[in-house]
Design goal:
It is a single chain. By secondary structure, the chain is mainly beta. 5% of the residues lie in helices and 38% in strands. The chain binds zinc ion. The site of zinc ion has 8 residues, from loops.
């Protein structure tokens, strides 16, 4: 498994369960056991029915690309060799549209197609914490990437 060199997360009380599940290579979101709705980011009470009977449940390993960007400036030394790299917002339609922001691997010469299927994989932070990441299931299915004009 790739060690990204990235600093690991500092879990809060609200998202400790998320990071704990990641250590077992499970990507989870909170789900209300009273009404079945999904919530991300995690909150202590269901916004639909006000129940606090919530549980971490595993999401599918396949998501749809909701949005993405390509990062060209290294904001941390750990990513200096990786630029340019993709960041995605992926969506899980079967889970009330829960969205996760994560690293996106895709061909650098094409723009990933919004709505395309992405597959979950894992990279490790420097401290060994697994971090979710996604890659396009059908590489090359995106439109040709047009480099923004430099100013
Ligand atoms: Zn609820």
């Amino acid at each position: 498994m790739m060690n990204s060199g990235l600093p690991g997360p500092k879990p809060s009380q609200a998202d400790a369960g998320f990071w704990s599940a990641c250590r077992q290579h499970k990507l989870c979101a909170r789900r209300c056991l009273a009404c079945g709705s999904w919530h991300q980011p995690p909150i202590p009470m269901c916004p639909k029915c006000q129940s606090s009977n919530l549980e971490w449940q595993t999401l599918s390993g396949i998501a749809l690309l909701f949005s993405w960007t390509r990062v060209h400036i290294a904001m941390h030394p750990a990513v200096a060799d990786a630029i340019p790299y993709g960041i995605a917002v992926v969506e899980f339609p079967a889970c009330d549209g829960v969205r996760i922001i994560a690293r996106l691997d895709h061909a650098s010469d094409s723009a990933p197609a919004i709505g395309a299927e992405c597959e979950l994989y894992w990279i490790n932070a420097a401290d060994g914490q697994p971090l979710p990441a996604f890659r396009m299931l059908l590489p090359g299915s995106g439109a040709p990437f047009v480099q923004p004009a430099s100013r």
